[in-house]
Design brief:
The chain has 5 helices and 36 strands. The protein is mostly beta strands. It starts with 8 loop residues before the first helix and ends with a strand.
Length: 676
């Protein structure tokens, strides 16, 4: 239990006592204590989430929970997901980790389309707008074969909103906060018969995030209150048109566009005189996606669901000479073009149903690096092109027996080829396989037992194989794929006032991809390597307890032991906390006032220094407060809410990565209006 040192007993007990699962979070229901969903019942959590058998653990987050989070982006919702946490890295990307599995192993989908940028198979969660979302569905265990290749650490399905019945809904939100933070957003939802439409958008900006009072940064910090170079502005627009036909067929087309610019916090533990520090800014970060999806019954071919998407991503990285951000020394310009298709078809077979799933994704990454301000700055920059094809075909069978037991099993073959590798040596196409099995047994009306397990592989990304990050990384041409064996055992209790889930999980990964520090001609560079492997075991507590009719507690707590194998010995995995947890106590009154107090805990973790040694990172317990007053005027069809909140109430230091602290105390006030 040494990995849990630094976690006081009262903190674990407090989080555990209130971590009895909330029915809303488990079922996706939004029938109680919601804002727009409770008062305006036309809104449903809708969209293109894949149908999943109950034998596979799925956690659902309702529209009501999303609205109450006052989230500026999807990154602000991750604390609602059991065993998940957000970590902002030295590139300024807010990445999701689940059960201490790396961000490249977690796939994020929106209405069935993959949001991950294939160059590095990850997505900055802070760049995903929330105004378009109607709900989240998160798979934490062994994934379905429907998700395709590389989904080794879980899947996050984001779903767009829709109206359940004919009518319209107009929305407006305004939020202001610390460090000149401002966010204005609006939306319009419409439905008439078979046809529906949605248009949402927002503008937001902030001068930077607040610096905790006890941060004590050694280098690269200008001022006491705002973290250096953490300003950003993000604009987004989402439009969708759909048709739900009386025959049961559904079709939809949507466009998502995100346009932003931002700074990147420098690593404050590194001395710029001795180490390469990222003095970076993104004057351009732009992502545009066209998504088409639908489902229909094709008779002999069964029920078919398909999603196709085209994505274009572009960014520019400016590397500055110092933390004054005046002279640009290097520039990287990226452009990614992606086409993806997912098709699944299910049909009754024997006593159950058989589903076949096809996935194909092709992506081209074009990169131009320019050296500025040196003798070589006059040379013509070279544009390098990289391309990959990812594909998989899978079969999945599920069946129920005697009304109590549900089983699911699946197998898939997966492959990758890279026909273009820039100025690097070519690589042969490689393939692998995945298998999964699951069982759900209902003991009685309120208690279920679930067991699942399997094997999944992940291929190295193009960036892991070829990326140099403006001369920060050495390329390792011998990098190999990862493979993991996963297992879950869950006990689920569903009740009217108390419901919950306890999950034991295990993951054994071979050829884990990690980093090491290499000293080359006096410069410390990073290089990706394959470890002998890694292992994570843990236990999750998820749930809700309704204390009084208008008072409830909900949350989750996960205890983990993440180990890496090296030369026959084990050591803690880098930047993988041994404990993660969150709880919320909420109360409301009949006259519209409400209060929510939440706590987010991160336990002991370790980090790698530039000397290839490990140091401990501090634990943290962050308290957040939200007060709201809402009013529904039925005569005018107006729903209004005014709210105020404080994040990190005690101004505690969080340090998920060396030299990159999280935000300190920050305030916000907001107003939301809905007309229908």
């Amino acid at each position: 239990m040494n990995d849990f040192r630094g976690t006081s007993l009262w903190q674990i007990l407090l989080l555990t006592l209130v971590s009895i699962p909330e029915t809303e979070a488990q079922t996706g229901s939004s029938s109680t204590d919601s804002l727009r969903t409770y008062e305006l019942s036309e809104i449903i959590v809708g969209g293109e989430a894949e149908s999943r058998a109950s034998a596979v653990a799925v956690h659902r987050i309702s529209l009501a929970s999303i609205v109450r989070a006052d989230a500026a982006s999807a990154a602000d919702l991750v604390h609602l997901v059991p065993s998940a946490h957000i970590q902002t890295n030295s590139r300024g990307e807010s990445l999701i980790y689940m059960r201490n599995v790396g961000e490249r192993q977690v796939a994020v989908f929106f209405d069935g389309a993959l949001l991950n940028i294939p160059w590095d198979n990850r997505i900055d969660m802070s760049m995903i707008p929330v105004g378009m979302l109607g709900g989240m569905e998160v798979s934490r265990g062994i994934p379905s074969v429907v998700y395709g290749p590389n989904v080794i650490g879980g899947a996050v399905n984001l779903q767009s909103r829709s109206l359940e019945r004919s009518g319209s809904l107009s929305e407006f939100t305004a939020q202001f906060g610390s460090n000149s933070a401002a966010r204005l957003g609006g939306g319009y939802l419409y439905r008439s018969g078979e046809w529906s439409a949605q248009a949402t958008g927002s503008l937001q900006s902030v001068d930077g995030f607040s610096l905790p009072a006890n941060a004590e940064l050694a280098y690269s910090q200008d001022g006491e209150f705002v973290r250096t170079n953490t300003d950003r502005s993000i604009n987004n627009l989402f439009v969708r048109v759909g048709r739900n036909m009386d025959s049961g067929s559904e079709y939809g087309v949507s466009i998502l566009h995100v346009d932003s610019e931002k700074g990147v916090a420098p690593e404050a533990h590194l001395d710029p005189a001795e180490d390469r520090v990222r003095f970076w800014r993104y004057p351009l970060w732009r992502n545009t996606m066209l998504i088409a999806n639908g489902s229909t019954d094709l008779g002999v071919f069964g029920a078919v669901r398909a999603t196709a998407w085209i994505g274009r991503f572009s960014q520019r990285i400016d590397q500055y000479e110092t933390d004054r951000y005046v002279n640009v020394t290097d520039r990287q310009e990226d452009r990614d073009e992606t086409v993806g298709v997912r098709i699944s078809s299910g049909k009754a077979f024997g006593s159950g149903s058989l589903r076949i799933a096809l996935n194909y994704l092709t992506s081209t990454h074009r990169q131009t690096d320019t050296v500025l301000g040196t003798e070589s700055s006059g040379s013509t920059p070279t544009m390098l092109s990289y391309k990959q094809h990812l594909y998989s075909v899978g079969l999945e069978y599920e069946a129920s027996f005697a009304g109590r037991m549900h089983v699911i099993s699946g197998v898939s073959l997966e492959g990758i080829s890279m026909p273009e590798t820039g100025d690097k040596p070519g690589r042969d196409a490689i393939g692998d396989y995945s298998v999964m099995v699951g069982l759900d047994y209902r003991l009685n009306e309120t208690v279920r037992v679930k067991l699942s397990g399997g094997r999944k592989a992940r291929f190295p990304t193009m960036r892991e194989l070829f990326g140099e990050a403006l001369r920060r990384f050495l390329v390792n041409e011998d990098l190999r794929p990862e493979s993991s064996f996963l297992g879950d055992l869950a006990l689920e209790l569903t009740g009217s006032r108390v419901s919950g889930e306890v999950v034991l999980f295990f993951r054994r990964t071979h050829d884990t991809i990690d980093q090491e520090i290499v000293d080359l001609d006096g410069y410390r560079l990073r290089r990706r390597i394959n470890l002998e492997g890694s292992r994570v075991w843990g236990v999750e507590f998820v749930g809700m307890s309704r204390i009084l009719e208008n008072v409830k507690a909900d949350g989750h707590l996960t205890l983990m032991k993440p180990d890496a194998f090296e030369r026959g010995e084990t050591k803690p995995m880098n930047e993988k906390p041994s404990v993660t947890g969150a709880m919320t106590i909420s109360a409301s009154t009949r006259w519209g006032a409400s209060a929510r107090v939440s706590a987010v805990y991160t336990g002991r973790a370790y980090a790698l220094t530039t000397r290839n040694t490990q140091v401990k990172l501090p634990t943290s317990l962050i308290l957040n407060l939200r007060l709201a007053l809402r009013k529904y005027i039925r005569e005018n069809g107006l729903f209004a809410e005014f709210y105020a909140g404080v994040n990190n109430l005690s101004d505690r230091l969080t340090l998920p990565q060396l030299g990159l602290p999280g935000a300190g105390r920050e305030y916000r006030v907001g107003l939301s209006l809905s007309f229908f």
